[in-house]
Design a protein that fits this description.
The complex is a heterotrimer. By secondary structure, chain A is α+β, with helices and mostly antiparallel strands. Chain A contains five helices and five strands; from the N terminus they run E-E-H-E-E-E-H-H-H-H. Chain A has a five-stranded mixed sheet with strand order 2-1-5-3-4, with helices on both faces. In chain A, a hairpin with a 2-residue loop joins strand 3 and strand 4. In chain B, helix 6 packs across helix 7 and helix 11 runs antiparallel to helix 12. Chain B is globular, with a radius of gyration of 26 Å. Chain C is an alpha+beta fold. Chain C has three domains: about 45 residues, no CATH class; about 110 residues, Uridine Diphospho-n-acetylenolpyruvylglucosamine Reductase, domain 3 (2-Layer Sandwich); about 100 residues, Enolase-like, domain 1 (2-Layer Sandwich), CATH 3.30.390.50. Helices cover about 30% and strands about 25% of the residues of chain C. Chain C has a five-stranded antiparallel sheet with strand order 4-5-8-6-7. In chain C, a hairpin with a 6-residue loop joins strand 13 and strand 14. The chains are: A alpha+beta, B alpha+beta, C alpha+beta. Chains A and B meet through helix 2 and helix 3 of A and helix 1 of B.
């Protein structure tokens, strides 16, 4: 079976894999690289559980053709910690009870990071908009919104 | 944080507890926010195969012929599994506690009973190859007429959905085709009431829509055992179900789970584990069977639909004097857990209100719809919805404030419930008072002063004389139509005649009496 | 068999590959084709891509706007000259979908998707498709009517006249979930005004028929009139004409017929 060689940056590290034709980025990350942080929820672009950043931009890995990330930078939840220290968003999610079953959490954290990276002081409406592509069936969103705002205020305090 | 109203619940809790009443971090939170919590699908196993099922395209059909010869030759196919390969291809979930008869195959053999029922499983090297093989399976269906409505299903001559229950109703204790509650004389109560209001309520099935779909990975372990990573909400329940279906001792399996990507009741049915384990047994390789999103939404079991008729008698002063309920729980094609839902539904009647005459019949009905299952208070939520809608309508009918109307009729400590248990620790009155206060909803002073601890018991503690049912089929009085009622007249059918009186309820012989919430037999 | 991925530098080669293979689909943002593959659609055996930069070009400098088929909704939102289309672009998916989904792909998105196409239909867009001997322009209405047969067609761009004023173009999507949700119905209206009267009104509806359609009876009710209460009422009353909405999980066809006039009235009267 013909496979395609693929190199890209994964959480700051160069990786090289061989993918079957039509493989999506979610499968490539999980099954070929072993990064289990992006999750499969729908395969349709409806839930956001597989969200990753490609060159800093929020994308759905389940709908991304793996070979289109050749030479680009892919960031997942596995890459947002700073050594042993949690990212402010991770800390805020834990402190604000923003995860229950935890399955949507990796995707929502990446959506939130995409927001804070370009807009460090978002309004509540902007947070709602930023996570609008992510479905959480447990929390009812309020603790998540509060957590993102809390992380932003931590960033503000540091700045 | 929860607010404990000390003015109402002064003696409910010791304030010196170390943990209760204080916030504490979840032990899995760190894993969740770092993405390291391990769900069933987060396992990468060497040589893993992928299982997909061929699903029925008909709601009800005989299977004349299943031809898998072309699929067997398709690229990447390792094994085709048919019903005859399943060691015990008939099960019902609650058989583990001796409740109900085996009625559901893992893979349909002679007949399909709902659209989407699994018929053939294909184990292949990749999901794509499994999908390609599915397209090569030829199934010759003989379509049968389907019944999709609970009341139609109980009519004489209705298509038989599930031959295990030929009358299309679950049979309790081998005799009863419904759950029954009788307390006082409801007909006399209705006759004496100032107003009678009869309404029909219909709830739709509801999909749990967990973000993680149902699935499992089974892999051969050493010593002839199998490791099973699963999304199940009920690990040992699923383990024992698999042991039964695959006809092996339960210590054959090492189930690993507990981290579930949302369940809400939709992950107790052990839908994928028997086939993924069987696939691993037949191929000697790890096998993964995961629902796609469409499968999850379309064929994953929902909260069952319910149809509920409530007929209430109410006095001008707002007291409810009679409540008569007939309810149909739509189990879909198989029992799963709906038999238990109907028990809970009956146990919930007549809602949290002291009513001297209560009458309830609750049926668990089979139709050619997707089998229903557990979901957050199943059996109770729909009935509560119906009862509380009815309460609003009754309040309107007698010209009372709906909050005050509930306070007037609420259980108080010492009242006798329709199930012949004394009401204790009641708090509905206080809940309504607090809700009114928070909503700035004005209620009158005497209703603000009402208490669950006052004015209960006494004459309200009595068990009223309760006539035995007469079993001659009675003509139902023509139903009262009201402005609320938008039900089509055609759907108003008289209830089926009740079954003949049994000599005595038979004690279950299976020693399962401790499951009183299911059997209601603890007080034999 | 795994899927074959074929990437071409030129749109001509990509179009030839598409038209010669019934199992081939053009892969734009992935929100339609990868979704189908993930759900087990084995009718797709080849993915065709083109790296031609023309596909991602936006020309909004003059009075006629051209948008390459591969332009994403996020790019539209970043383009000041296309502010009249921002409401339509923002109504699609969440941020990730807008970073991926393309204008060209939206032309193929079946109900309840395809909201942006409703806006394009109201703007009387031309769809530029790659033919054997270069590109040709197809009116969007004709394109949509034959969409079933267009799976092997490579769309290059869409183009249309800018609306004369900000007020002349209006868009409204009705969804149950905000800010993101599939459409119950989608409405767009282009209302050019000449000496106080509407000339050349175009009203487009989504989720009111198997494809996006024009509400021609409502357009006739507006034509040559001033946009007053009586005219708006007449157009709202006519909105339902020629529609055939289906039932789906978001709403019944009955409900869609009930509300289409209500929302057209709100759209025309500038109500929120």
């Amino acid at each position: 079976m013909a496979k395609t060689a693929l190199q890209f940056r994964h959480n700051g590290r160069d990786v090289a894999i061989f993918v079957d034709g039509g493989t999506n980025l979610l499968v490539a990350l999980r099954e070929l690289i072993g990064d289990m942080t992006p999750k499969f929820g729908c395969g349709q672009g409806g839930c956001g559980a597989c969200s990753v950043l490609i060159d800093g931009e929020l994308h759905l890995s389940c709908l991304t053709l793996a070979e289109t990330v050749a030479g680009r930078s892919v960031e997942t939840l596995d890459g947002i910690k700073d050594g042993p220290s949690l990212h402010p968003l991770q800390r805020a999610f834990a402190d604000n009870f923003a995860a229950q079953c935890g399955y949507c959490t990796p995707g929502i954290l990446m959506a939130a990071k995409a927001l804070l990276d370009r807009n460090p002081q978002p309004s509540r409406a902007e947070v709602v908009e930023a996570i609008s592509g992510n479905i959480c069936r447990c929390t009812g969103y309020e603790p998540i919104i509060n957590a993102v705002l809390a992380a932003a205020s931590v960033g503000r305090a540091r700045a | 944080m929860l607010e404990l109203r000390k003015d109402i619940f002064a003696d409910e809790r010791d304030d010196n507890l170390k943990e209760i009443g204080k916030g504490t971090q979840r032990q899995d939170m760190l894993g969740h926010v770092t993405g390291t919590s391990t769900y069933f699908d987060d396992h990468k196993l060497q040589g893993m195969l992928h299982l997909k099922v061929v699903r029925s395209t008909h709601a009800h059909a005989r299977l004349r012929r299943i031809d898998t010869s072309e699929a067997e030759r398709a690229a990447g196919v390792r094994r085709i599994i048919r019903g005859s390969d399943v060691p015990r291809n008939l099960n019902t979930l609650l058989s583990l506690i001796n409740f109900g008869k085996d009625d559901e195959p893992s893979l349909a053999v002679d007949k399909v009973r709902y659209k989407g029922e699994p018929i053939v499983a294909i184990v292949a090297d990749s999901p794509r190859e499994a999908y390609e093989a599915i397209a090569k399976v030829r199934i010759d269906y003989e379509p049968l007429s389907a019944v999709l409505d609970v009341e139609d299903a109980l009519k004489p001559g209705a298509p038989v959905v599930n031959e295990t229950y030929p009358k299309n109703a679950f049979i309790y204790h081998d005799i009863y085709d419904h759950q029954k509650l009788r307390f006082g004389d409801v007909e006399r109560g209705l006759a004496a009431a100032d107003h009678v209001l009869e309404q029909r309520y219909q709830m739709s099935p509801i999909e749990h829509a967990p973000t993680e779909t149902n699935g499992s990975i089974a892999a051969p372990d050493t010593n002839g055992r199998y490791i099973v990573y699963t999304s199940t909400q009920a690990l040992f329940f699923s383990l024992d179900t698999c042991a039964k279906i695959l006809d092996v001792p339960s210590n054959t399996f090492h189930f690993i789970g507990g981290t579930v990507g949302g369940g809400f009741g939709g992950k107790v049915d052990t839908l994928t584990e028997p086939l993924s384990i069987l696939g691993a047994m037949l191929t000697g390789r790890p096998v993964r069977y995961v629902f796609g999103r469409e499968e999850e939404m379309q064929y994953g079991p929902p909260r069952g639909a319910e149809r509920i008729y409530i007929k209430d008698g109410v006095m001008r002063d707002g007291r409810i004097v009679a409540r008569k309920i007939r309810a149909y729980f739509d189990s879909g094609a198989y029992t799963r857990l709906s038999s238990y839902a109907a028990v809970k539904c009956a146990a919930h009647l007549p809602g949290p209100y002291t009513i001297p005459n209560v009458y309830g019949d609750v049926y668990c009905v089979f139709t050619n719809r997707t089998p229903a299952t557990a979901m957050r208070g199943f059996g109770v939520t729909a009935m509560d919805f119906a009862i509380e809608c009815q309460m609003d309508k009754l309040a309107h009918l007698v010209g009372m404030d709906p909050m005050e109307f509930r306070i007037l009729n609420a259980y108080r400590d010492g009242d006798m419930k329709a199930h012949r248990r004394e009401a204790k620790n009641c708090a509905l009155i206080e809940c309504v008072q607090v809700a009114a206060e928070k909503a700035k909803w004005p209620i009158r002073e005497d209703f603000k002063r009402a208490s669950s601890r006052k004015e209960g018991g006494g004459s309200r503690a009595a068990i009223p004389p309760t006539p035995r049912d007469s079993y001659a089929p009675v003509a139902t009085p023509s139903q009262q139509r009201t402005t609320y009622d938008r039900a089509p007249a055609a759907s108003r059918e008289p209830p089926p005649p009740p079954p003949p009186p049994p000599p005595r309820p038979q004690a279950p012989s299976h020693g399962a009496a401790r499951f009183s919430s299911v059997f209601g037999t603890r007080r034999r | 068999m795994a899927v074959t991925v074929r990437t071409f530098a030129s749109t001509g080669e990509a179009a030839a590959a598409l038209s010669s293979d019934r199992g081939a689909r053009y892969f734009g943002g992935g929100t339609l084709v990868m979704r189908a593959l993930n759900e087990g659609d084995i009718s797709i055996s080849t993915i065709v891509r083109a790296s031609d930069h023309a596909l991602t070009r936006i020309d909004a400098t003059g009075s006629r706007v051209t948008i390459g088929a591969g332009v994403t909704f996020a790019r539209i939102l970043a383009e000041c000259g296309l502010s009249f289309l921002h409401a339509a672009a923002r109504s699609i998916g969440g941020p990730a979908v807008r970073n991926m989904g393309t204008v060209g792909g939206n032309l193929f998105a079946a109900t309840p998707y395809g909201d942006f196409t409703v806006a394009l239909l109201a703007l009387d867009a031309m769809v530029s498709v790659q033919g054997g001997l270069g590109s040709r322009d197809v009116p969007i209405e004709e394109f949509l009517q034959t969409r079933e047969r267009q799976t092997g067609t490579l769309v290059l761009a869409v183009s249309f006249q800018k609306p004369a004023s900000a007020d002349a173009f209006r868009y409204r999507k009705i969804a149950r979930i905000k800010p993101k949700g599939g459409a119950v119905i989608t409405l767009a209206a282009h209302l050019p005004v000449s000496s106080g009267r509407i000339v050349g009104a175009r009203i487009a509806l989504g989720s009111m028929a198997p494809t996006q359609i024009r509400a021609r009876a409502a357009e006739r009710a507006l034509e040559g009139r001033t946009l007053d209460g009586a005219t708006i009422s007449a157009a709202a009353a006519a909105a339902i004409e020629g529609t055939s909405p289906a039932d789906n999980a978001l709403a019944s066809g009955w409900y869609r017929r009930e509300i289409v006039g209500v929302h057209l009235r709100r759209l025309l009267s500038g109500q929120e």
